[in-house]
Design brief:
Pathway: Cofactor biosynthesis; NAD(+) biosynthesis; quinolinate from iminoaspartate: step 1/1. The protein is an alpha/beta fold and 361 residues long. The protein is built from 17 helices and twelve strands. It folds into three domains: 113 residues, NadA-like (Rossmann fold, 3-Layer(aba) Sandwich), CATH 3.40.50; 104 residues, Rossmann fold (3-Layer(aba) Sandwich), CATH 3.40.50; 79 residues, NadA-like (Rossmann fold). The structure holds 1,3-dihydroxyacetonephosphate (13P) and iron/sulfur cluster.
Length: 361
Amino acid sequence: MDILDLQAKSIPAALQSRIDALAIAAPTAPWLSAAEKQHLKDTIKTLLKQKNAQLVAHYYVDDELQALAEETGGKVADSLEMANFGAQSKADILVVCGVRFMGETAKMLSPEKTILMPDLNATCSLDEGCPPEEFAKFCAKYPDHKVVVYANTSAEVKAIADWVVTSGNALEIVSHLKAQGEKIIWAPDQHLGNWIEQQTGIEMIRWQGNCIVHHEFQTYELQALKEKHPDAKVLVHPESPKEVVALADVVGSTRVMIEAVQNMPDQKFIVATDYGIFYKMQQVAPGKTLIVAPTGGSKNTCNSCAHCPWMAMNSLQNLAACLQNMTGEVLIEESIRVKALASVERMLQFSRQQGLVKIQA
Ligand code: 13P
Ligand code: SF4
């Protein structure tokens, strides 16, 4: 075995996954001039109107895509509200700016609509780390358990599940199942699963996946940053390791973190999630100071790389191209869609009953 082989073997899976993602990630086109950007935005606006299409964007995508979604009557939201909004939209076409599971969820809920994505290769390490065949074998070992899967999974994995959850409703849904005396298989995010266990006191059979962005937040460096900014509140997404969660003042979904910045009286926040969320945080609380939590050690040149490489694959150019050419259509095999829909609808119905999402008039 030569040195190269040895090096290749010693790369941890999560890091390799990040390297692969960075290799395929389309840059968000920093080389475009202001006039070129404006032209693309105008084209997108015209196409959206002509085709009765709406943009549904996640908080982690490029600022300009979030702004476009808002300006054109679309939605910028967390994954739960994206699903809820898309299901109630009157548009013929939804263009989902996010990652593939978000497009697939929209298609499950609205099979009559055309669902487009700027780049169908925009995936998620949690989805990639939970292959349906292996997951089915895993579940078969525990036939008396309810299968609860995070939204960040493929349609095939959702088709195996009894319940789908997001970080915006996982606590409520697992607490509900616990009250009914159910035993639970949880997949795929190990850290979110751990946080749910801590909060509810339930023990679950857990799949050991992780998010390549949140898994990287560093405990020691975050503690040091907290000490440097004793007046800052720390906001942490529960996909982060438990030692990082333990340093948080607020733990919650992207929506919960934005509401914390908006509603808490504090002026300074250290934020442990993808920094794409700063666009919305700055919008709802313009005067407040936001600091990204560290993903690198103190000697690293990059102190924080908290940006999802797959979310970064959404750009003005590929958004305009997918609308223009009707490319990037999300399709799901019908038998899978119908099975997966049952667990997604159960989640949405529960969330609407609990007031966790809006019911549009
Ligand atoms: P939210 O459900 O909080 O939007 O998070 C989705 C996600 O992919 C977080 O990494
Ligand atoms: Fe998946 Fe993490 Fe990217 Fe969210 S940030 S889409 S969990 S890889």
